[in-house]
Amino acid sequence: MAAISVHRFASCITCHSWSPDRSMVAFCPNSNEVHIYRLSEDKWERAYVLQKHDQIVSGIDWSARSNRIVTVSHDRNSYVWNMEGSEWVPTLVILRLNRAALCVQWSPQENKFAVGSGAKTVCICYYEPENNWWVSKLIRKRHNSSVTSVAWHPNNILLATTSTDGKCRVFSTFIKGVDTRDSEAGASVDAKFGEQILQLDLSHSWAFGVKWSPRGNTLAYVGHNSMIYFVDGVGPSPLAQNVLLRGLPLRDVLFLSERMAVGVGFDCNPMVFAADDSGIWNFIRFLGERKTSSSSGSKYGSQFSEAFGKFYGQSRQGTSNDGGENSRHLGSVHENCITCIVSLGELGSSSTRRFSTSGVDGNIVIWDLENSEDLLEFL
To answer: What are the sequence ranges of the domains in the chain?
Structure first.
């Protein structure tokens, strides 16, 4: 089983993100504030409260290279926060939205970030040193409903989006003067800004989280119809697969390697998917599920891995999944819907064994697959 550690930070957590050295975590406690906690002497202590938004903060991303935090909110605004001295100083980003901002993510090179919104619009934001502010270019008239998630391809040019119109799309975000024409980026650098590269009509329901695999070879997104979709070879002739879930829908997905992904959602327990040698994706198991070969005394580990210090939480007893029931009966750590999943791997790494989840129950959970021998073959 995956070793875990649990800490309850609030009654509900909208989203979260980690500092580059993983010593601090920023999250929204379902309010207009962002709380930043620091691990100090084996205890989590609140270090900062970022107060600038007027409504619920719906997205947070903490850049790994530049140590900047970007936040978006239902108030239609975005701020980039820079550490100056001992304080976080906000800079307003001009989004030009007339509906809520719903999600945000830094690009791999951190020279841009993307914002999805309820205005059927995606904002690609970049810094203008001449004017000392952040501006945005809009991708308009492509979505028929709210943009629920955005994900950058490793080439820093392609951007995948999902929407409540049931579609997943891939766009070019090449901005002259910001991006360079790198040959490794392929044909995407020849496309104009906002040009649609691909539209996937696989889901007949709302589409939520979307992610690229570490090398950008595979795209995965989830739908409210209890299905997850994997797409290989994004281009004129993509190869698409879908996996039907036996339980409740997923809300987000994360690749741990080119061959393994984890989905999280309304079943309150991370679900592992992996591709076999022929490239066929299948559901493997819930992370909270005890393997049939395990002894009856197996428990969740409730200690931090060495990277996160010695913090002790409450142990929980795992149960089997022989009856085909959903994960609520598997002794799941989360007590309500999981809405956010974040990688804890090194920047640029092709695989990771650690990630964190947060959700409506107010818990942030650290998952470590170090002792999950049945899963290590896919990493």
So the answer is: 1-47+252-379, 52-165+167-200
